[in-house]
Amino acid sequence: MPAVPLSSIWRWFAGCTVAESRNLRLAARVGDIEPFRVMDLLARARTLEAAGRSVVHMEIGEPDFPTPAPVVEAGLRALSDGHTQYTPALGLPALREAIAGHYAEQGVNISPERIVITPGASGALLLALGTVLNPGEGLLLADPGYPCNRHFARFIEGVPQAVPVGPESRYQLTAEQVAAHWQPNSAAVLVASPSNPTGTVLTKGEITELAAAVEARRGCLLVDEIYHGLVYGEAPPSALTVTDRAFIINSFSKYFCMTGWRLGWLVVPEGYVRAVEKLAQNLFIAASTPAQYAALAAFAPETRTILEERRAEFQRRRDYLLPALRELGLEIPIVPQGAFYLYADISRFSNDAEAFSADLLERAGVAVTPGTDFGHHRAERHVRFAYTTAREQLEEGVRRIAEHLNLLSTEPDL
Amino acid sequence: MPAVPLSSIWRWFAGCTVAESRNLRLAARVGDIEPFRVMDLLARARTLEAAGRSVVHMEIGEPDFPTPAPVVEAGLRALSDGHTQYTPALGLPALREAIAGHYAEQGVNISPERIVITPGASGALLLALGTVLNPGEGLLLADPGYPCNRHFARFIEGVPQAVPVGPESRYQLTAEQVAAHWQPNSAAVLVASPSNPTGTVLTKGEITELAAAVEARRGCLLVDEIYHGLVYGEAPPSALTVTDRAFIINSFSKYFCMTGWRLGWLVVPEGYVRAVEKLAQNLFIAASTPAQYAALAAFAPETRTILEERRAEFQRRRDYLLPALRELGLEIPIVPQGAFYLYADISRFSNDAEAFSADLLERAGVAVTPGTDFGHHRAERHVRFAYTTAREQLEEGVRRIAEHLNLLSTEPDL
To answer: How far does B364 lie from chain A, in Å, by closest CA?
Structure first.
C-alpha cells in the first residue's frame, strides 16, 4: 500500500535542515519553521495529474473563481496607463480611502491614515507582529489555526503560545482562555474571524470580551479578518466596531478573489502609523502598483454583485458538503459560518492525519490537508476539506472518499 | 531661512517611537529602524509641487522610464488569460528557467532549481538573511550602503556590522576589511555590485578574494546584484562566475524598469533550496502572478533593445552630471561605473547633509538624498544624486545648485 510516501517525505523535510546544516550555515529559526504541507500535497497532486490520474482538489485554500472582470479591467487600464512605478509605502491614497469607505458602509468610521496597504495579508501579519512583538515575547493563538501565524512569530524571534481550542468554543480563543494561558512573557493575542481551518466566527460580544481581556494585560490584540465577507448567514461585525486599539489584518485574496495579485491591508491603532510605515518602507518599499490600481474596482457595485453570487455558491457547497461528510462518519461537530473550510475529525478511521491524507490522495485521488498543518492539538486526528471546487467535483470527491473509507474499514490493522 | 523643517522632522521621527511607547506596546526593533529619508523627502517635494513650486528630482531611486512595452503587453495578456491565482512559492517554473537562460547567456550555468522568485529584491534579502542569520549574529556591510540592508538584519534580531568604506576601495568592502572587521559573532557579509549610493562595481578578482575571505571564516556571502545590467563600460561578471556558495540577490526593478511590479529573484547555493522554500511559503505564499508572467518577456530581444537604449541614456546622463557637479565644488573622487547614482562630498559647503538637503529643496527646488540615509560613516558630509530624470532636468538642477551654492558661500555662519 502506497500510503507512506507523502508523510515520509514530510518527515525527511523536517529532518533535512539538520542534515544540511552539517555543512551549511543555517539559522535556528529555519529548523523551527515547518513547510506548508498543503503546498507539498498540491505539488504531489499535480504530479499525479501530469501522470494521467484524476484528482479532486479539496486542499486548496484559494477561491476557484477568477478575479472579477471589473477588477481585471481596472488592472488592464492601470498597465495601459503606465502605472508601473512605486507607490508610497503606505499605499495609494485613493485605495486607502476606498477601504475606509468600505468600512463606512459597515458603519465603522476609520481614518484612511490608519489603513496600510500591504503585499497580501502576509505582509500585514509581518508588519503587525514586527511592530509589537519583541524577541522572547509570546503571541497567544488558537491551535488549530492558520499555519503561517506561528511561523511569523518565530521568524522574528517571538514565541508562539498555542492555546488548544475545540468545538466547545467553536474553535475560537475565549477571554477565559486568554486569562488562563497568559504568561509573564505574553505580549499579544491573535484571533481569526472567520477562522482557518475551522470556518467559525467571533460574535461582537466575544470580541468585546477578548479585547478587554487583552487590554487588561496591557497586551496587543490582532484580528485576522481575511475571510470577512465570506460568511453564510448573519455577518459578524469587524472587530473595529468594538475596539480601536487592535491591529486588523485583511486581504483582497479571499472574498475579492485576488490571491495571485498579493494585496492586503492592515488597520493600525492610532499612534502606530509611523512605526508601521518605517517597517513597510524598509521591508517592502511598497505593495504592487498594478494590484493597487486594480483593487480600486473591488468595491464597485458591479464587482460586489459578482462576489455576492460567489458567496451564495460557497454557501450552497457548504450546505451540500457538511452533511455529506458527516454521513460518511467524519465528525464535524459545529456548523462553520464562514470561509470555505470544513475541519473534520477522522478518529473513526485514523490517528495519523498525514498518512490518511497521503493515502486518500494516492489511492482515491482526493486531496485534503492534514490537520498537522494547523498546529498540534489533536492535529493527527483531523483533516481540512476546502470547498474551493465546483459542486460536481465535491460530489465526485465524496463518492471517492466513501469508497475509500469502506475499503479502510474492511482492511485489518491499517 | 527655512532650512530647518525636514531635518527637524527626521529628528522628531527618530524620537517619536519613544514618545509613542509611553502608551503603546512597541517592539525595540522599531526604535532602531530608521525611516527611509528619501521617501520623506520625496513626499515633501510632492507637497511643494502641489503648492505650485518647481522641483528637480535627483533623489528618486527608480528609473524614470516606464516598464518596456513588451513586458507590459505580457502582463496584459496574463490578466486577459486569467492568470490571477497563486503560483508555487518558488515561482513560475518558466520564469525560473528564463532567468537560468539569462545567466547561461553570460556563460554561467545555474540550475533553475536554485532560482527563487521573490516579491522584489526586498523579499530576496529577507529570505536570504532569514535563512542564514541567527539573533545576535553579525552581518558585515559597507557603510555607506543601501539603507534597508542594515534594517533587514536588525528586523530579524541580527547585528548589522558596518564597515566604513571610502574612495580608496571605490566604496567597496575588501577581503582585507573582512579580515580586519570580522567579529566572533560575525556570520555573513553583504556586498553590492554595482553599489548604492556609490555606483561602483566589484571586479572578478575582488569578488574571488571576498568569497575566499568569507569562506575561510565559515561565513556566508551575499551579493546584491540588483543594478546588474546598468553598467557603463565593461560589465562586471556576476559573482556566480566565481562562487556557487553565495546568495545572489537580483531584481526586475532597476535594469528592467519594473519597480512597481515588485519582483526580484534570489539564487541560492545548493542545499539551501528547501529551507528558503519553507520561509517563502510562510512569509509570502508566492510573488505576484501577473508580474511573473510579465517578466517572462523581460529577456526577449525586443525588450533588450529598449533596455540597452536606456542604459546608453543613463551613461550619457552620468557623463554630463559627473563633471558638472565636480565643477561646482562637489567632490566625487571616483568615477562610478554603474547604477544611476553619484555620491558627492559636500564638505566644502556643509557638515550637515540633512540640513543641506532640506535647504536645497526648500530654497532651490532641487531634491537630493542626504548621506545619512546610507549609514553613518562621513554620512553628514555626503549627498546622493540620482540621474533618474531627463537631461534637461539635470541641467536645470545643476543651474539651481550652482546659484544656491554661490549664495551659501556669501552667507556667513551658515
So the answer is: 24
Contact call for B25 and A274, based on CB within 8 A: no
B375 touches chain A (CB under 8 A): no
Residue A372 makes CB contacts below 8 A (sequence gap 6+) with A37, A353, A354, A379, A380
Which of B11, B86, B90 would you mutate first to test chain A, the one with the most A CBs within 10 A? Answer: B86
Contacts of B214 in chain A (CB under 8 A): none
**And the C-alpha cell for B199?**
555606483
Question: d(Cα B197, Cα B374) in Å, to the nearest integer?
Answer: 7
**Nearest CB to B288: which of A36, A82, A260?**
A260
**β A247-251/A264-267 pair status:** antiparallel
- Establish if B412 touches chain A: CB-CB under 8 angstroms: no
C-beta separation of B118 from B280 below 8 A? yes
Q: Is B9 near chain A, with CB under 8 Å?
A: no
Is B184 in CB contact (< 8 Å) with chain A? no
Burial class (CB in 10 A: 0-12, 13-18, 19+), B180: exposed
CA distances from A11 to A183, A234, B307 (A): 31, 42, 47
Strand, helix or coil at B144?
Answer: coil
User: Which chain A residues are Cβ-neighbours of B130 within 8 angstroms?
Assistant: 27, 29-30, 155
**Across the interface, do B259 and A66 touch by the CB < 8 Å criterion?**
no
Q: Are A271 and B75 a contacting pair at CB < 8 A? A: no
Between the two ends of chain B, the Cα-to-Cα distance in Å is: 10
Among candidates B110, B86, B87, which has minimal Cα distance to B99?
Answer: B110
pTM reported for the whole predicted model: 0.94
Q: How far is CA A73 from its chain centroid?
A: 27
Interface predicted TM-score (ipTM) over 0.90: yes
Taking only the tens of pLDDT, chain B with its 414 residues reads 333 344 444 444 443 343 344 478 999 999 999 888 888 888 899 999 999 999 999 998 999 999 999 999 999 999 999 999 999 999 999 999 999 999 999 999 999 999 999 999 999 999 999 999 999 999 999 999 999 999 999 999 999 999 999 999 999 999 999 999 999 999 999 999 999 999 999 999 999 999 999 999 999 999 999 999 999 988 889 999 999 999 999 999 999 999 999 999 999 999 999 999 999 999 999 999 999 999 999 999 999 999 999 999 999 999 999 999 999 999 999 999 999 999 999 999 999 999 999 999 999 999 999 999 999 999 999 999 999 999 999 999 999 999 999 988 776 654
- Of chain A, the end-to-end C-alpha distance in Å amounts to 10
Mark yes or no for CB contact B261/A147 under 8 Å: no
Q: What is the pLDDT of residues A74-94, one digit of tens each?
A: 999 999 999 999 999 999 999
In angstroms, what CA-CA distances link B147 with A91, A155, A330, A364, B256?
21, 21, 54, 53, 22
CA distance A87 to chain B (A): 7
Which residue, among B87, B285, B292, would best test binding to A if mutated, counting the most A CBs under 10 Å from its CB?
B285
